[in-house]
Amino acid sequence: xxxxxxxxxxxxxxxxxxxxxxxxxxxxxxxxxxxxxxxxxxxxxxxxxxxxxxxxxxxxxxxxxxxxxxxxxxxxxxx
Length: 79
Description:
Helix content is 16%, strand content 28%. The chain has 79 residues and is α+β, with helices and mostly antiparallel strands.
């Protein structure tokens, strides 16, 4: 017997990402997104994110990380 869990689905969509609205400076863009996330009380850890990388052979990897220090010129991420 299978239990249907589809009604528990939560939509996290809040719009779409369009290049014309994204800063060319990644630090400025991150600050914009982070500041926006911290205004939503339902977001418990606005410093949580998924870091995606790939090997030289193109094999992708993704892992959750927490931003620990926010500086002016770069971000320090703790694994």
